[in-house]
Design a protein that fits this description.
WD repeats lie at residues 992-1023. One of its GO terms (biological process) is intracellular protein localization. Residues 282-390 form the BEACH-type PH domain. It is found in: Membrane. The protein contains 27 helices and 38 strands. It is α+β, with helices and mostly antiparallel strands. Among the domains are: 23-78, no CATH class; 289-409, Roll (PH-domain like), CATH 2.30.29.30; 472-702, BEACH domain (Neurobeachin, Chain: A, domain 1); 728-761 and 782-793 and 800-1056, Methylamine Dehydrogenase, Chain H, CATH 2.130.10. It has a seven-stranded antiparallel sheet with strand order 6-5-4-3-9-8-7, covered by helices on one side. Strands 20, 21, 22, 23 and 24 form a five-stranded antiparallel sheet that branches. A four-stranded antiparallel sheet has the order 11-12-13-15.
């Protein structure tokens, strides 16, 4: 038995294993090549019959799906594949290699291109990243700066608010101290020996004609003994004068030290308050504009920062600026706007202005009748500021639309677009008002002493004892400049002009100007705050007495003979008599002849400063001046200001006084720029040129009013008898033709009123007076028609109730003319005297009560309404038995008395009386309230509630009963038993008279020139207010006269007599 052989791996299995081992790593590559290049290889690997070996049969499927090496070897070793490979493999693989090379090159180029593009994209992304990073850093930095600026602005506004609060607190403290310590206050002095010395300053309040006439208390005032002493030492005054000046100076120092010690605690408290971080910022909106600005005020140019929100304007001075530190502290204390805040609702007009002959400033006129002026770095800033401020234009007075464009108008454009020249030609406005208008639009302003308003000398006779204003020889030739009035002096100036040979300076006639800051301060040296400004200009001392303004006649002579004196006048020469008086008792030195300089020496024809001002104003408004004033306007504002016409008129000044003569922006030399600015600042600036052609003349009075030369009609135009026998105690004449129903409102003692129609077409004729009792007697040619409701009453109680004010009046009060006032349109009647201490507003249409106003603690005894037009608000003042006067605001839109809330509240409470108030009168234009009480004083308050002064009554004039005040500032008081006294608004008594009639009423004409009185004797008399000279008496009435009224045109007087 042979053993069976042990099974061993077969030869085939060993071969397969070896193939797998040898070709295992190559097969995947081979499969991949065959599959990837199948489209190419299928055309090359063909069989004997031309078939495609790869695509037909199992070739491609094997390469794709088989994982066995043996199958691949068997496929490739088959006869067909061997034959095809032997015939075509070499060529196929050569082509394949070539194709691969081409593909590889193409792929390389593609990859390189893609790489380059990728690198470009990456570089661009990197650059974008860098830019974005830089932009992000820039935005971060800008945001940081913005936040810092906002924080700085917030700190600035908070600091400014605190400073403003301190200023306001100081003013309130002064006001309270004044209320308590004045003569009529709770702590008032009664012994004249203990009365303190009072100082006064000119207030910035302007009336409608832009006159600053009001003097107010000056708590910081003094007689400037240090300036007197310094001047005495420098000018070589006598030894006794120096010793007296030293004593006064040391006395002043001692009193000032006492005042400082008394107020140091208060200053410490205020400084503590400024450290309180919990105070709120009084900024109600986002800051629209914040820019550097200069506050331009009299004697001051203060750098600081202006901020404008959506509702307010702020200015905060930069106290660290060297320019601010150079300002004299004595001048600085008179500036109220260093830490200023103004609501947009206060802004009334905005004018573009020049500063140092550059158009980079604006002047803002406020509801408080003051103005503020700011200068900016450049003109674009000016435009931005005007656009951010309210759109008020240049106001409503000049007939120019209230647009921001109007605020940017040049002086010539304002002149061209206004209607004031036509008004002046038609004599609707006075010469003074027209000259103030020209000064205003030409850039002249009270805020910049270098550009102060200019007025002409109009008179030449300052030596005669009597002045005849009808003589032409007493008037100046207004067709010539002041420097050319004297022929010899004119020849001197023209010779200088013709012989001038300087290369860089153009020829000129006059090296000095007609208006400079020094000239203005010299004119006003006796009036604070100009006294302090004058001392700051003169180095703290009064100038040599021989150079001070001491005599009107001497000043006129110097303007005619001195080659360095060609100055014109200022507006105050026509309205401010106090400039001639040394009210604050300054020691100004002595002239060469030993005469002490005190009050200004007046011409012999003027017995007082008031008379001089009045006559000078009369001369300005005279026909001689009116017919040639346009020629003076040509010289100062018109076509003779510059150019060939100025040369022919001998009217050329130094070239740096003219606008456009130098561009400050192109001057880079700091020293040169400062020198030019000082030249402009100190040696005068010519107003902006308004006209390039001759100014039209004024129309003659005869041409405009030919009837003024016709026969005078009879005094009595009409007599009307009312159905009621009750005496009329009040008449209001609301006769403006623009009213829906011009009317005369009358009120009787039994509280019945009437709304009588006024005929605006009535013209008085030379005929007998009409007598009207019934409608049949009334015709179209009568001035007045009776209230139709009264005519229909008869036995009709319903109609009677439509004209009755009720029976609630106090029986303790005597109903008088000043117990009632009416609105301008006669729609409402305000009455006082009610037992419940109220006063009431009635509708004149229905006699229904519209409003009951409480505020007093006693019966309201008298009322007064301020002047206003048809659409404007006004003040109503109420006096009471509680010894106070309350000031109320009548809103024309709501036609009610308004307050801070829904309940009417008074704007101010006026104190000082110790007995019931009997009379009150108020003027919104002058900002004054004048009131009198039983056996008491006549007090003058401001509309803000400050007591200014007491009008000292003449001896024997005890109890004021009626008071009247004109817009010219004359106050007339009627005391008991027919005693009359006339005062200025600043307290000087002009004249007093004792009448032989018991006067019941008095009335002033609109211009204050004439006074009308009437009383128990039934005689209406006309007086000249200034000197209380009796001018005319109307025919006597049959009984006493209780009330008077004047129509709007001042042509007709309405008189009621008790039948």
């Amino acid at each position: 038995n042979v053993p069976l052989p042990v099974p061993t791996p077969s030869r085939e299995a060993s071969l397969t294993q070896k193939l797998e081992t040898a070709l295992g790593s190559v097969c995947p590559l081979l499969r991949e090549i065959m599959v990837d290049f199948a489209p190419f290889l299928s055309k090359t690997l063909v069989g004997s019959h031309g078939q495609e070996l790869l695509m037909e049969g199992k070739g491609l499927t094997t390469f794709k799906n088989s994982h066995s090496v043996v199958e691949l070897v068997m496929l490739l070793c088959s006869q067909e594949w061997q034959n095809s490979l032997q015939k075509h493999a070499g060529l196929a693989f050569i082509e394949l290699i070539n194709e691969g090379r081409l593909l590889s090159h193409a792929m390389k180029d593609h990859i390189v291109r893609v790489a380059n593009e990728a690198e470009f994209i990456l570089n661009r992304m990197r650059a974008d990243d860098v830019l974005k990073h830089a932009d992000f850093e820039s935005q971060c930095a800008q945001t940081l700066l913005d936040r810092r600026e906002e924080e700085r602005m917030c700190d600035h506004l908070i600091t400014a608010a605190r400073r403003r609060d301190n200023v306001i607190a100081g003013r309130l403290l002064e006001k309270v101290c004044n209320i308590l310590s004045n003569k009529h206050g709770a702590w008032g002095y009664t012994d004249p020996a203990t009365a303190k010395l009072e100082f006064w300053k000119l207030d910035a309040w302007e009336d409608d004609a832009r006159r600053r006439k009001r003097f107010v208390h000056n708590p910081r005032g003094s007689s400037h003994p240090q300036a007197t002493l310094k001047a005495a030492l420098e000018h070589g005054a006598p030894e006794d004068a120096i010793m007296q000046a030293r004593e006064e100076f040391h006395a002043q120092l001692a009193s000032s030290h006492m005042q400082q010690s008394q107020s140091s605690d208060l200053m410490d408290d205020s400084e503590l308050l400024t450290d309180d971080r919990d105070l709120d910022v009084d900024l109600t909106g986002p800051v629209n504009i914040s820019t550097k600005a200069r506050l331009v005020a009299p004697g001051i140019v203060a750098p600081g920062m202006m901020s404008i929100t959506s509702t307010e304007l702020y200015f905060e001075v930069d106290e660290d600026d060297p320019e601010f530190k150079r300002i004299d502290p004595e001048v600085l204390k008179y500036c109220d706007h260093l830490h200023g805040k103004w609501y947009f609702s206060e802004v009334r007009a905005i004018f573009s202005r020049r500063y140092l002959l550059q158009n980079v400033a604006i002047e803002i006129f406020l509801a408080s009748r003051t103005s503020i002026m700011f200068a900016f770095p450049d003109q674009p800033t000016v435009k931005r500021v005007i656009k951010a401020l309210p759109r008020v234009g240049v106001g409503i007075k000049y007939g120019i639309p209230q647009t921001r464009r109007a605020s940017m108008m040049s002086a010539r454009q304002l002149m061209r677009n206004s209607n004031m020249t036509q008004k002046w030609q038609r004599r609707e406005i006075s010469n003074f008002e027209y000259l103030m208008f020209l000064n205003t639009i030409a850039g002249r302003t009270y805020n910049d002493l270098n550009q102060y308003p200019v007025f002409p000398w109009v008179l030449t006779n300052y030596e005669s004892k009597e002045l005849d204003l009808s003589l032409p020889s007493n008037y100046r030739d207004l067709s010539k400049p002041i420097g050319a009035l004297n022929p010899s002096r004119r020849a001197y100036f023209e010779d200088r002009y013709n012989s001038w040979e300087h290369e860089s300076i153009p020829p000129f006639h006059y090296g000095t100007h007609y208006s400079t800051a020094a000239f203005v301060l010299n004119w006003l040296i006796r009036v604070e705050p100009f006294t302090s400004m004058f001392l700051a200009l003169q180095g703290g001392k009064f100038d040599n007495p021989n150079r001070l303004f001491s005599s009107v006649a001497l000043s006129w002579k110097n303007c005619q003979r001195d080659t360095s004196d060609v100055k014109e006048l200022i507006p105050e020469f026509f309205f401010l008599p106090e400039m001639m008086m040394n009210l604050n008792r300054y020691r100004l030195g002595q002239l060469e002849d030993g005469t002490a300089v005190g009050n200004v020496e007046l011409p012999p024809w003027a017995s007082s400063p008031e008379e001089f001002i009045r006559i000078n104003r009369m001369a300005l408004e005279s026909e001689f001046v009116s017919c040639q004033l346009h020629q003076w306007i040509d010289l100062i504002f018109g076509y003779k200001q510059r150019g060939p016409e100025a040369v022919r008129a001998s009217n050329v000044f130094y070239y740096l006084t003219y606008e456009g003569s130098v561009d400050m922006d192109v001057i880079t030399d700091v020293v040169m720029k400062e020198a030019i600015e000082n030249q402009i600042r100190n040696f005068g600036q010519t107003p902006s040129q308004l006209l390039m052609e001759p100014h039209p003349p004024r129309s003659s009075a005869m041409h405009l009013s030919p009837m003024m030369f016709s026969t005078v009609p009879d005094d009595v135009c009409m007599t009307m008898k009312f159905p009621s026998n009750s005496p009329i105690v009040h008449i209001s004449a609301n006769t403006y033709p623009q009213l829906p129903m011009p009317s005369i409102v009358t009120v009787t003692t039994n509280q019945q009123f009437a709304l009588n129609r006024w005929n605006t077409n009535y013209a008085a004729s030379v005929q007998s007076p009409s007598y009207a009792e019934t409608p049949q007697n009334q015709s179209n040619n009568l001035p007045l028609s009776m209230d139709p409701v009264l005519l229909q009453t008869g036995n009709n109680n319903v109609s009677a109730l439509r004209r009755h004010l009720g029976d609630n009046f106090s029986q303790k009060l005597r109903i008088r003319l000043n117990c009632f006032v009416t609105t301008v349109d006669s729609r409402f009647l305000v009455a006082c005297g009610f037992w419940d201490n109220s006063f009431r507003v009635f509708s004149t249409e229905t006699a229904k009560i519209v409003q009951i106003v409480f505020g007093h603690y006693g019966v309201v005894t008298c009322l007064s309404r301020s002047e206003c037009n048809i659409t404007s608000d006004c003040y109503i003042a109420s006096g009471s038995a509680d010894c106070t006067v309350l000031l109320w605001h009548w809103n024309a839109r709501s036609q009610t008395i308004v307050g801070e809330g829904e309940v009417p509240t008074p704007r101010a409470t006026l104190t000082g009386h110790e007995q019931p108030v009997t009379a009150v009168v108020i003027s919104a234009e002058l900002g004054l309230v004048v009131s009198g009480s039983i056996a008491g004083p006549v007090l003058v308050h401001t509309t803000f509630g400050d007591l200014l002064r007491c009008l000292e009554a003449p001896l024997g004039f005890i109890s004021p009963e009626n008071i009247a005040m004109s817009r010219e500032g004359v106050i007339v008081v009627n005391y008991e038993r027919g005693n009359i006294a006339a005062f200025t608004i600043n307290g000087k008594r002009l004249r007093h008279e004792s009448h032989n009639d018991n006067l019941q009423c008095l009335l002033l004409s609109r211009d204050g020139e004439y006074l009308m009185t009437a009383g128990d004797k039934g005689i209406v008399e006309v007086w000249r207010t200034f000197n209380l000279a009796l001018l005319y008496a109307f025919p006597s009435c049959d009984s006493s006269v209780r009330s008077l009224a004047l129509t709007h045109d001042q042509k007709y007087v309405l008189i009621y007599t008790t039948f």
